[in-house]
Structure formats: structure tokens, C-alpha cells
UniProtKB/TrEMBL annotation:
Its main location: membrane. Residues 4-398 form the Major facilitator superfamily (MFS) profile domain. This is TCR/Tet family MFS transporter. SUPFAM superfamilies: MFS general substrate transporter (SSF103473). Pfam families: MFS_1. It comes from Marivita cryptomonadis.
Length: 401
């Protein structure tokens, strides 16, 4: 594999690590800088995660368009240098406001996947683009697995250790890119920067133009919000319910991520062959009803650790839904569809942390009428039931399934 490709894949992996890296140490880190209790830490954790997602949503198109104007190389290298500096700031932050600023900058600098994908497109032959984009997706998925594991293991050395390691990784990758990354944007393809084309809200206009897909968009949104209960509250839930430390939380999230990769990379083919796309969506939603219900009420840490990777067996919903919608819109509107789904996913990522951590805080405060750390999973269960009802409702338009 050529060194520029290795650099691009490492960059995407580091981007994906941005959220997962903090999850295992977040409860202790926030309590360290605020002096509050676990419920208060969960609320601040929701704010920090949401801010990160908002910045990615707003600046992903901006950074992508900047790379079309000024080139992939400077955008990627500058982003990595700023990211490394941001992790250093977070490693020494003594206040919640500095952590918040760090998440703002981190969300912006992590919004470079579009630029990395554009670079891969620039260097790929037409018949190799799809498989190279697959490499980018695999690197992104690997980052989601490595982030929590790295955060959990290094968290044993202190709440700041994961940030020092991430800073070193981003800085080293910037050095590698400086020596191996060549520019691919030439004057022949360079175009002026246009704020109208860099506006992320433009993607929402596509929603009204896609006929008969409103119901499926609703199912997709409800599932995304429900699914985000894992990164939003898992660290707080594990500590409150089972007394897990950062290492155990990181291990459990790593098991979940690995199982998700296995399901989406291999098992889904068998399920689709047996049930079809519509049946696969129904299976996934029904499975998640039981998975969320079990996690809401389980009291044994050992059983929870066993359930965590098993819960990923329901992670077939998104690919199956995308398959249904992709066939419905036709070949000419695939990009439009994916852009709309990306926007929906971003909004879900913004909303879910605040809602899930708010519910967790409500039922884990010292003055709570009912102490119930599993409450967010019951909320996710409810959202999945609503999604199932919407999906099974009679269809008014001829959307293929």
C-alpha cells in the first residue's frame, strides 16, 4: 500500500477516535474539573459530545470546499497540527470551559473525512474508487473501536493520558503527511470557494424532493437517536450500575465495536439473503427492543459484558434501510440520498447526547424519586417501538422494499 494512502487511512482513523477516546475517562475528568457528582458530569458530557457533533456537521462541507480551493495537502496537514495542539490543551485543561473550547476545535479539525475521501478519489482509477472508499470506511470504523479501547487502557494512567497519546499520534501523522503527501488538486480542477455550496443546510432541501421516502427517513432518524444511547451514557451507566472503571468501559465498547464490524461486514449478507431488506429491518428493530430492555434492567456487570457485543447483532438496520431507499430513488440520485441521510444522522447525533444524558441525570441524582441508571435504554426501547410502528404502517407510495 502506498504511503499517501496509509497517511489518509490513519487520518480518518484519528478523526473517528475523536469521540470514543474521551468516553471512558469522561465521568472522572468532568468531575475532576467541576467538582460535581456523576449526574452533573453526565449532563456536561452530553453538552461536550453535542458540541463536537455540531462542529462536525457545520464544518464538514466547509473544510471539503476549502480543499477544493486550496488543495487537500494544506487542509489535511493544518487540521492535524491544530488537532494535536487541541489535544495538548485538553490534556492540561483545568476548567470545564476549556474542555468545551477543546471540543469545539476538535469537532472542526475532525471534520476532514470528506477531504480524505476526495484525496482517495483523486488518486484512484475509476474502477478502483469504490474499493478505496471502502478502505476509508473501514479506517473510520476501526477508529471507533480503537478510540474507546485506547481511552480505557490509558485512562488507568490518569484522566489526561489519552489526550497526550492522541496529541502525539496526530502530530506524528502530520509529520508523515508532510513528507509523503503530494498535492492532487491542480489548476485544471481547482474551483473558487462558494459559501452557498459549503452550506450544510442545503442538504435538507433534498428531503422534500425525494418522493415517498418520508416514512423511511423517520425510521432512520428514530433509530439513530435510539442507537446513540451507547456512546452518550455508556460510561456513566457502567460506573453507576456496575462500578466499572475506565478500563472496563473501554473494553466493553471495544467489544461492541468489533461485533458491529463483524455484523455489518459479514453477517448482514446472510441475514439479507434469508430475510430480504424489509425483513432485515424488522428483525433488527425487534432485536433492539429486547436488547435495550435487557440493558435497562440488568444488574450484573458480567451479564452486561456478555450482552454488550450481542447487542450489536441488531446493527443491520441502517444498511438495510439504505438498500431500500437506494433502490427507490434510482441511480441518478444516489448522492442526493446519501447527503440527506448524512444530515439526518448528524442531527440525531446532536440531539441524542443531550436527551440521553438528561434522562440519566434525572434518574441518578441523589434526590431522585427512583434510582434507575437504565432509564435511557428504556427511552431507546420506546423510540425503536415507534420506529417499528412507522415502518410497518401501510405505505402510501410505491417505495420498493
Amino acid at each position: 500500500m502506498r504511503l499517501p494512502v496509509v497517511f489518509i487511512l490513519i487520518t480518518v482513523m484519528i478523526d473517528a477516535m475523536g469521540i470514543g477516546l474521551m468516553i471512558p475517562v469522561m465521568p472522572d475528568l468532568i468531575r475532576e474539573v467541576t467538582g460535581g457528582d456523576l449526574a452533573n458530569a453526565a449532563l456536561w458530557g452530553g453538552v461536550l459530545t453535542t458540541v463536537f457533533a455540531v462542529m462536525q456537521f457545520l464544518f464538514g462541507p466547509v473544510i471539503g470546499n476549502l480543499s477544493d480551493r486550496f488543495g487537500r495537502r494544506p487542509v489535511l496537514l493544518i487540521s492535524l497540527v491544530v488537532m494535536a495542539a487541541d489535544y495538548v490543551v485538553m490534556a492540561v485543561a483545568g476548567s470545564i470551559w476549556l474542555l468545551l473550547l477543546g471540543r469545539v476545535v476538535g469537532g472542526i479539525t475532525s471534520a476532514t473525512q470528506a477531504t480524505a475521501s476526495a484525496y482517495m478519489a483523486d488518486i484512484s482509477d475509476p474502477d478502483k474508487k469504490a474499493q478505496n472508499f471502502g478502505l476509508v470506511g473501514a479506517a473510520f470504523g476501526l477508529g471507533f473501536v480503537i478510540g474507546p479501547l485506547m481511552g480505557g487502557l490509558l485512562g488507568e494512567w490518569g484522566t489526561r493520558a489519552p489526550f497526550w497519546a492522541a496529541a502525539a499520534l496526530a502530530g506524528a501523522n502530520a509529520v508523515l503527511g508532510y513528507f509523503v503527501l503530494r498535492e492532487t488538486v491542480t489548476d485544471a480542477i481547482r474551483r473558487p470557494f462558494d459559501w452557498r455550496r459549503a452550506n450544510p443546510f442545503g442538504a435538507f432541501r433534498a428531503l422534500g424532493e425525494l418522493p415517498g421516502l418520508g416514512r423511511l427517513f423517520a425510521v432512520f432518524f428514530l433509530y439513530q437517536v435510539a442507537f446513540f444511547v451507547y456512546p452518550a451514557v455508556w460510561a456513566y451507566y457502567g460506573q453507576a450500575r456496575f462500578g466499572w472503571n475506565a478500563g472496563m468501559i473501554g473494553l466493553s465498547l471495544g467489544l461492541f465495536g468489533i461485533m458491529m464490524a463483524v455484523v455489518q461486514g459479514g453477517l448482514i449478507r446472510l441475514i439479507l439473503a434469508r430475510l430480504g431488506e424489509r425483513g432485515t429491518v424488522i428483525y433488527g428493530l425487534v432485536f433492539d427492543v429486547f436488547a435495550f430492555g435487557a440493558l435497562a434492567f440488568v444488574t450484573s456487570g458480567t451479564i452486561a459484558l456478555i450482552l454488550t457485543p450481542l447487542a450489536a447483532l441488531g446493527a443491520v438496520i441502517t444498511p438495510a434501510l439504505q438498500g431500500i431507499m437506494s433502490r427507490a430513488v434510482g441511480d441518478k440520485r444516489q448522492g442526493e440520498l446519501q447527503g440527506a441521510l448524512t444530515s439526518i444522522g448528524a442531527i440525531a447525533m446532536i440531539i441524542a447526547p443531550l436527551v440521553m444524558t438528561g434522562v440519566f441525570a434525572r434518574y441518578t441524582r441523589t434526590d431522585a424519586d427512583i434510582y434507575f441508571p437504565g432509564a435511557p435504554f428504556l427511552l431507546s426501547l420506546t423510540l425503536i417501538l415507534v420506529a417499528l410502528v412507522v415502518f410497518l404502517a401501510p405505505r402510501r407510495s410505491p417505495v420498493a422494499a
